[in-house]
Write a structure and sequence with these properties.
The complex is a heterodimer of chains A (324) and B (296). Chain A has 324 residues and is of the alpha/beta class. Helix content of chain A is 24%, strand content 30%. Chain A has 2 domains: 179 residues, Rossmann fold (3-Layer(aba) Sandwich); 123 residues, Rossmann fold (3-Layer(aba) Sandwich), CATH 3.40.50. In chain A, strand 2 and strand 3 form a beta hairpin. Chain B has 296 residues and is of the alpha/beta class. Chain B has a single domain, classed as Rossmann fold (3-Layer(aba) Sandwich), CATH 3.40.50.620. The chains are: A alpha/beta (324), B alpha/beta (296). Chains A and B meet through helix 3, strand 8, strand 9, strand 12 and strand 16 of A and strand 7, strand 9, strand 13, strand 14 and helix 8 of B.
Chain lengths: 324, 296
């Protein structure tokens, strides 16, 4: 049986020397996983002029930052980045290595846990359980990698909570030299164009979210009005995005954004597991649906069975009257 | 200047249309009952390859690893315009995760001869890992460009590709040979050509020919295979032995990730409070929310 060390590593995704939220969320989660196996938490930082960023990871519990700082590493490129990580993992073999991503192996986990596992007559200690919905949300699969030294998984932004420490960990920065080879430059970046995301669903205290059940873009417009009146943001399920009711940057769920607002109003959303995974931790949930059997009611605090096209305008009117 | 492309395609269960019967009592999936479809993004990958051939000349070869019935997607590729199709199939490949799959695909590609570009869909809808393309590139030791939106330029040494990144796009130039994975909205796949459907609807893999021979003592497999090759309707079929693969790197044995547990999604009874769908109900609801300081 394979002997693992007790290191939990988090890859720190960065842009312009600033860490991606998902990486800091994963440090927060990694800190707990490391505690469960009595291990240490380390960050892996690749970029240029990233020493401040490396220090920032101590605030989330990293005890050591493994840093590769080189002008050629300023922007992500697959060849040099994967070469660095391959070499590093081969050398140190961390027990767990987590990445923020929209896909990967095992992709889009909605939860990570540590547990002893009995698998095929073998007993494994402290395995990483990688938990995710699969097969169109009909099942929840738990994936393990029992016989390899390094267990890797990816998690999307927002799934894990961001939990900085009051007092930063006493971390140490380990600079590791990087030598550029011609193979690293086999792919070159000619141009980059980025618009900062204008929508920040994660920070919205109130979210009014619509599903395919609304039936039309016109009906969806009522949600915009409701959100404006309540001071919230509009969002949608994957089905609503696929139907063209709303843009994909406002999609809530496993393949969209995970949110925890004070109030989540789900309108015409049936509530597949992938959607529920992205909103069930909201403080208060109102479900409005004409199907009383819709799964969304299982996570709701308040349920309204009825026609959304009538109830939403009524909600707006009643709320406006209260404000007077 | 012409380019030879290889396209990685996959037959996938139609996860968007799962009926109740597909779920077994123990929470596992009865794959045999799932309709099998052509993974959409792989069809876009084939369209990319066909456009390269239209514009520059060259060949388009499709390859899939899968069970015998995966030949359906290969015939569809031939209907769309692929020059040649390979089925890589062996019982020992069953249960492969992305690592074992990319090992088999990369070894098959090594034996298929020279190529300039490998295209594949970004990911398959059954696993959503988006890993097989990148892992195949790694094993072939060639560069990769993922999330491609369009080809901006192509010459004998390099390809220029616009790819999606968070919040925008970037344009990359990569030296050939290269592996490219494409996004679902990157192109419209061309429809089947009636002439090609007529020509290839009876195209068969070795496994399908063996089935024919099984039920007919007058047929001999080698003879039948030659006949299909001559008619250009033989789908090349490769097994683990044909590819001289290491058995411990294939299928379940070669897959480090294991499914430990599968649970059906069971809904809790839920403890929500029902609100009447009228003004009084909403009045009450909004009062409760205000008491909880939800607004402002």
């Amino acid at each position: 049986m394979i002997q693992r060390n007790k290191e939990v590593w988090i890859f720190i995704e960065q842009r312009n020397g600033k860490a991606a939220d998902v990486s800091l969320e994963l440090l927060s989660k990694g800190r707990k996983l490391a505690a469960e196996i009595n291990g240490t938490l380390k960050s892996v930082v690749i970029g240029h002029n990233v020493s401040d960023l490396a220090k920032e990871t101590f605030r989330f519990g990293a005890q050591e930052a493994l840093v590769f700082d080189h002008p050629a590493l300023e922007h992500y490129r697959t060849m040099p980045y994967s070469k660095i990580l391959n070499t590093l993992v081969d050398e140190h073999k961390p027990a767990i290595f987590l990445f923020g991503a929209k896909s990967g192996l095992t992709a889009d986990c909605t939860d990570l846990q540590i547990s002893d596992v009995k698998y095929l007559r073998n007993e494994y200690k402290d395995l990483l359980l990688q938990i995710r919905p699969a097969f169109g949300g009909n099942i929840i699969a738990t994936i393990i990698a029992p016989d390899v030294a390094t267990q890797m998984a990816t998690v999307r932004e927002g799934v894990m909570r961001l939990e900085p420490l009051d007092v930063p960990a006493e971390g140490k920065i380990t600079n590791i030299p990087f030598e550029l080879t011609p193979f690293d430059e086999i792919v070159t970046i000619i141009e980059q164009h980025r618009e900062e995301n204008k929508v920040n669903l994660k920070a919205a205290p109130i979210i009014v979210s619509g599903g395919y059940g609304l039936g039309s873009k016109e009906n969806f417009m009522h949600l915009h009005e409701l959100a404006a009146v309540l001071g919230g943001e509009v969002a949608g399920s994957r089905a609503a995005v696929d139907a063209g009711f709303i843009t994909s940057d406002r999609q809530v769920g496993q393949t969209g954004v995970t949110v925890r607002p004070k109030l989540y109003i789900a309108v015409g959303i049936s509530g597949a597991i992938q959607h529920r995974a992205g909103m069930h931790e909201s403080n208060k949930i109102i479900a409005i649906n004409n199907d009383p059997e819709a799964p969304i009611f299982s996570v709701a605090h308040y349920g309204i069975v009825g026609d959304a096209a009538q109830i939403v305008p009524m909600f707006i009117n009643v709320f406006k009257q209260k404000l007077r | 200047m012409s380019f030879n492309s290889i396209v990685l395609v996959k037959q996938v269960p139609d996860t968007a249309n799962i009926s109740g019967q597909v779920m077994k009592d123990d929470g596992t999936v009865n794959r045999a009952l799932l309709p099998a479809i052509f993974n959409h993004e792989d069809r876009i990958a084939l369209e990319f390859a066909l456009q390269v051939r239209d514009n520059y000349g060259g060949t388009v070869t499709v390859i899939t690893m899968g069970p015998p019935r995966a030949s359906d997607v290969l015939r569809e590729c031939l209907f769309m315009g692929a020059d040649e199709a390979y089925l890589i199939s062996d019982r020992k490949f069953a249960g492969a995760d992305t690592l074992a799959t990319s090992y088999v695909l990369s070894e098959a590609i090594k034996k298929m001869g020279n190529f300039d570009i490998i295209f594949g869909g970004r990911q398959a809808i059954d696993g959503d890992t988006a890993q097989v393309g990148p892992q195949t590139a790694e094993k072939l030791n060639i560069p990769q460009v993922t999330y491609a939106m369009s080809i901006e330029g192509l010459n004998k040494d390099s390809i220029t590709i616009k790819r999606k990144i968070e919040g925008g796009y970037e344009v990359l130039q990569a030296k050939l040979p290269v592996l490219v994975t494409v996004l679902k909205d990157a192109a419209f796949p061309r429809p089947f050509k009636a002439k090609r459907v007529m020509a290839y609807k009876n195209a068969k893999t070795l496994l399908e020919l063996e089935k024919l021979v099984e039920g007919n003592s007058l047929l001999y497999i080698d003879q039948l295979k030659d006949e299909y090759i001559q008619k250009h309707i033989y789908i090349k079929t490769l097994t683990m032995d044909d590819l001289q693969l290491e058995v411990e790197r294939c299928g379940v044995a070669g897959s480090p990730t294991k499914v430990h547990k599968v649970e059906s999604v069971v809904l809790g009874a839920g403890t929500h409070e029902m609100i009447e769908p009228n003004k009084d109900g909403l009045n009450l609801l909004i009062d409760k929310l205000m008491e909880d300081h939800i607004f402002g």
